[in-house]
Specification:
- By secondary structure, the chain is an alpha/beta fold.
- The chain is 44% helix and 13% strand.
- The chain has a domain of 121 residues: Vaccinia Virus protein VP39 (Rossmann fold), CATH 3.40.50.
- It has a five-stranded parallel beta sheet with strand order 3-2-1-4-5.
- Helix 6 crosses helix 9 and helix 7 packs antiparallel against helix 8.
- It starts with 8 loop residues before the first helix and ends with a helix.
Length: 231
């Protein structure tokens, strides 16, 4: 039996309870999904090719790529999501090549065996910089020469926008997250990590829509000091 990877217990508990498998079908997350799929189609090697979806959850991207002619291997640290991906694969016309519990920091694959790696969740769930570096190094290790890595990171402003949109700044714990995130030089962090493991940059792009200026939090008559700093 494959051991469950260890990471932040709060994150593990969240994904055991919350239906992540439905997230990309709802609200503005649908735009994230469309944009991600467009970028993969544009820059990934053409099928047939081998794809490793690390942190692939229930297979939102993996199953579509498999249907498009790719041999797709899915790895995720959450057993519940892997079980859901396996079920969806079993009933799909084109199943996944493999689906298993695994750790982005220690991939169970030989060197230079895949053409594309999707790393669309691990980097912002691994809160220790050393863990993020290991995940990128592992992705680099399993990629064939000339392969492509698609990696997602969260903007330093994401917490602030989420807090403003959902009125979370009154929660002292969330306010601390917003304050801390505003000091994080996200692009510089990931540029340094990428350079450390020897990955050549292809590009940086947004996956999510800009906030609407008619949102209630943006138009409030008397914003608090913390809201003003977040804006």
């Amino acid at each position: 039996m494959t051991p469950t990877p260890t990471f932040d217990p709060a994150i593990a508990d969240y994904y055991q309870r919350v239906p992540e498998e439905q997230r990309l079908e709802q609200g503005s997350f649908q735009l994230e999904a469309l944009r991600t799929r467009e970028l993969i189609r544009r820059f990934a090697p053409s099928p047939p090719a081998t794809v490793l979806d690390v942190g692939g959850a229930a297979g939102a991207y993996a199953l579509e790529l498999a249907a498009g002619g790719y041999a797709v291997h899915l790895v995720d640290p959450v057993p519940r999501l892997v079980a859901e991906a396996r079920h969806r694969s079993e009933v799909a016309e084109t199943p996944l090549a493999s689906c298993r519990v695994g750790d982005a920091r220690a991939l169970d694959l030989a060197e230079h065996t895949v053409d594309t790696v999707l790393l669309l969740g691990p980097l912002y769930h691994l809160t220790d910089p050393a863990d993020r570096a290991r995940a990128l190094a592992e992705a680099s290790r399993v990629l064939r020469r000339g392969g492509r890595l698609f990696a997602a990171a969260i903007s330093r402003w994401a917490s602030a926008l989420d807090a403003l949109a959902r009125d979370l700044l009154q929660d002292a714990r969330f306010a601390e997250i917003v304050e801390a995130a505003g000091d994080a030089p996200i692009p510089e962090i990931y540029d340094a990590l990428r350079a450390e493991v020897g990955l050549a940059p292809l590009g940086l792009t947004d996956l999510t829509p800009a906030p609407r200026l008619d949102e209630p939090w943006f138009c409030c008559a008397e914003p608090t000091a913390l809201q003003l700093r977040a804006i």
